Amino acid sequence: MVHRLEPLVVRHTLRLPRPCGPAGEGAVAARQFDAALMSVGFKLSAELLERLSGLGEGVVVDTAVRTLGTVREMVGDHVAHNVYFVDFPANVPDTYDFWMRCIAEALADDEARDSVLEQLGEGVVDLLTLPSYGRYQHTYAEMLGHHDELIAAAGDRMTVLHLGGDPDEEVGALYLALAGSSTPLGEEALRDLDVLARACVEGPQPETVPVRENRAVLNRARVRAGSPPLLDTVTDVLRLACALSDGDVTLVGPTRFRKLSRPLRRALLAGLDSVVAASPAKLADVRVHREAWKRLGERLHPHEYPRWPHAADVFAVARGEKRAPSFDSRVEELLGMHDVTGAAKVLKSAPGKLFRSLDRLLRMALDQEERDSVVAAAEEVVGDVSGRVLLSVREHLANRAQDTGETRVFVNRLGRAWVTEDERPPVLPPERERLIAVLDQELRRRLPDPGHLLIDPDALDVALPLSGRAAAAGLGVLPRGSVSPVDGELLRFFVYWKQAAHRTDYDLSALMLDAEFATVCWLAYTNLKDLEGEHSGDITEAPDGASEFVDLRLGAVRGEYIVPQVNIFAGEGFEEVEESFFGFMLRDPEQRGRPFEPRTVRMKSGLRGPGRVALPLAFKREPDGRWRAKWLHLYLRGAPAANRVEGNRVSVATLLRGIVEREQLTVRYLTGLMDATTTTVWDGSTIPAGPVTYIGLQRPDGLHPDSRIVVPENLRDLIPE
């Protein structure tokens, strides 16, 4: 069981649960393990190396095999990354010359000649009909023969694996951290929580589970183990039903409810009955998801259980047979009468909703008295609002000083983005500044005493993870809106995908924009090389997996922005393929090696979004000439097929402008609120002797064991409750 869960601990914490086994002479095997890790950009901490060296060789080898498999997948080295042009990035041909060569080869092919001649006669040739276009012309092994071994460089990534505690303790601690998270988890983390919940359902449980999706996952494990679920709203019951049907516990997408056993039906109906009996007003929540309730009712058959009449009321409301006025309708009624003061007074009983409604209330207020009543209501209940909502409202207010006409960016829970003109009048300065002061004061009060604060300066511009869905799962990934330095001269993007059932063609491109977000040029299968760099060639199907790369020489880039993107030209979406991921590498000019070298990978993330165009991040040239990454994690709807960089230039540029101009709450903001006894900017080498609160991009070796450590893997711990 522990070995099965060990990869989860490594992925989420970069800690290897304490290896156990008979003592022995494992030093040689441990050093070999360390060397193998270094080849993929990882290494053992001094403490972990020492621990392994004192164990038997067999234990070390078994540990190495398991761990190497985990970290190789983390960085994307678990698959073979072949390229179309065998010498890439060398000898990439001119696009037109390459197409002409493909046509010439097709004319020399007896089976293809007639079709090509017919197309030439009509004046248009479909590249996909040419035998040598879009399909690998060599094996992976043959491609490797054209490339030298990687020349190591001091700037190569080196991610340290640290020694963890007892395996059971590490698994339990990870379970408690994910289950008790104050921010929603991403899709992969939610799946991991499900695995952990099944293993830990009988052990210690988190004191609170503030995120409802997490609660649904835990409740499924509890019900299956014969324990009562944790329910306090009718929607909790609906989420649990979705979980039991392996559906969407976020309730964003529809769930196809399965036929449920009688014990499960009784558990759901009994829970529903007790929730409504304790608070009949909660029936109003049914209307939000009434169609889902109707479908669930067809599976639960509440009429067969007359001893739970309150549960039957839920389905009567869903069918429209019973009236249940909602809290929101009462607020809307008051606002419809322009009674802003009355609406604010009612909303005080739901502090979170009040704070999410502040902008609207202030815009509707007709005079200073009404505006004062809104702010006063917020001041009165600020202590009852979750930290995540407070931070979200604080970020919102920071972006509400602009005049009408600015760009407004919308990003839904799935990462799909769109842009429109912001026609709202600004929040007036007195109320805006008063609310910001209230929020800052409350957040400062909730933050723990950090003692000696040790900060990696590269972490200061990391955006606060107000939602786990603001970042894709992967290695080196930061939340949406974060800014991080880019140190290197050669920037290489990569995408890998493997189709599940149908021919699928993903196209990797890089769009270059100037300071005004106008197009300068692009690299794609339609423009294989330019001053900036080269494209590895178009692959148009991936039954066994396929990769594409774009190489950029940062010093040669014309323009101020680089926007890599993955366009779906044909076939399965990002959520339908067997596997797909994106990443980037940084290299020095003199470095050789394969197109994909894991130790040069700085970031690798899964592509799991609802659109047909993925925008993982963008790069901006600073006034000093250095480049910095701006993390996006966005998806555009795109067209059903034939998406190309040329066709979405305007929408991408407009979206990027809106993201760049938006102010994000970052680690810098929160650390500025902390009342530290001492604050030290970490220089990368000097480690304080005593315990510290360390905030950085990677945990350094040698910190005092009583230190509190915050790195991207547990950045959510910074969000106050």
Can you describe what's shown?
The chain is α+β, with helices and mostly antiparallel strands. 36% of the residues lie in helices and 16% in strands. The chain has 23 helices and 21 strands. A 6-stranded antiparallel beta sheet has the order 7-16-15-9-13-12, with no helix packed on it. Helix 1 packs across helix 8. The protein is globular. The protein starts with a helix and ends in an 11-residue tail after the last strand. The model has no long low-confidence stretch (mean pLDDT 92).
Properties at a glance:
721 residues; alpha+beta; six-stranded antiparallel sheet
Task: Give a short summary of the structure.
With 721 residues, this protein is an alpha+beta fold.
How would the blueprint of this fold be written?
Blueprint (H helix, E strand, L loop, with lengths): L1 H12 L1 E2 L10 H12 L3 E3 L1 H8 L3 H19 L19 H13 L5 H10 L17 H5 L14 E5 L3 H13 L7 H14 L11 H13 L9 H11 L17 H17 L11 H11 L8 H10 L8 H10 L3 H8 L3 H6 L1 H7 L3 H14 L5 H12 L8 E5 L5 E5 L7 H18 L5 E4 L18 E2 L7 E4 L3 E9 L6 E9 L5 E5 L9 E3 L10 E8 L7 E10 L8 E9 L13 E6 L6 E9 L5 E10 L12 H13 L5 H7 L4 E4 L11 E3 L12 E3 L11
Parallel strand pairs: 1-3, 2-3, 6-19, 6-20, 20-21
Antiparallel strand pairs: 4-5, 7-16, 8-18, 9-13, 9-15, 10-11, 10-14, 12-13, 14-17, 15-16, 17-18
Helix pairs in contact: 1-4, 1-8, 2-3, 2-4, 8-9, 9-10, 10-11, 11-12, 12-14, 13-14, 15-16, 16-19, 19-21, 20-21
